[in-house]
Design goal:
150 residues, alpha/beta, Ribose 5-phosphate Isomerase B, Chain: A, 16% strand, globular
Length: 150
């Protein structure tokens, strides 16, 4: 069974819950890293937890949601090996997988509606990395990560 982690802050809570339901329906084992309700929380706590799970290969991919997605983008991309991509449309979700081998999908709960979010998630999950010329570019990022540990 495929395993994926999901987390949000309070602004992304409702969309996170909808995404968890979708993922379970699609046959994924979901690690819901919180929060458990829509009470105010600090997004870095949840972004760090999810990025660490992906970076340590406890899960192969993750999805994080905050109000705009910007805060979570800043947090998760501080981790070596993380390629978090903020997506507000299906085209970006497709290309971030094909060209960048994105391992964390980031969305804004105040920006993307549930229907579109479900399309973005399914596109992101089902689009393979193309490799080729894109692998050469990723290798440069991986090399940089290896020489610049946090």
């Amino acid at each position: 069974m495929k395993k994926i982690a999901v987390a949000s802050d309070h602004a992304g809570y409702d969309l996170k819950e909808s995404i968890v339901t979708l993922l379970v329906h699609l046959g994924y084992k979901v690690d819901d890293l919180g929060p458990e309700n829509s009470d105010s929380v600090d997004y870095p706590d949840y972004g760090i937890s999810l990025a660490r799970a992906v970076a340590e290969e406890k899960v192969s991919r993750g999805i994080v949601i905050c109000g705009t997605g910007i805060g979570m983008s800043i947090v998760v991309n501080r981790f070596p090996g993380i390629r978090g991509t903020l997506c507000c449309d299906v085209y970006t979700a497709k290309l971030c997988r094909e060209h960048n081998d994105s391992n964390i999908l980031i969305m804004g709960g105040h920006v993307v509606g549930k229907g579109l979010a479900h399309e973005i998630v399914q596109t992101w999950l089902n689009t393979p990395f193309e490799g080729g010329r894109h692998q050469k570019r990723l290798d440069k990022i991986i090399q940089f990560d290896a020489s610049n540990k946090l």
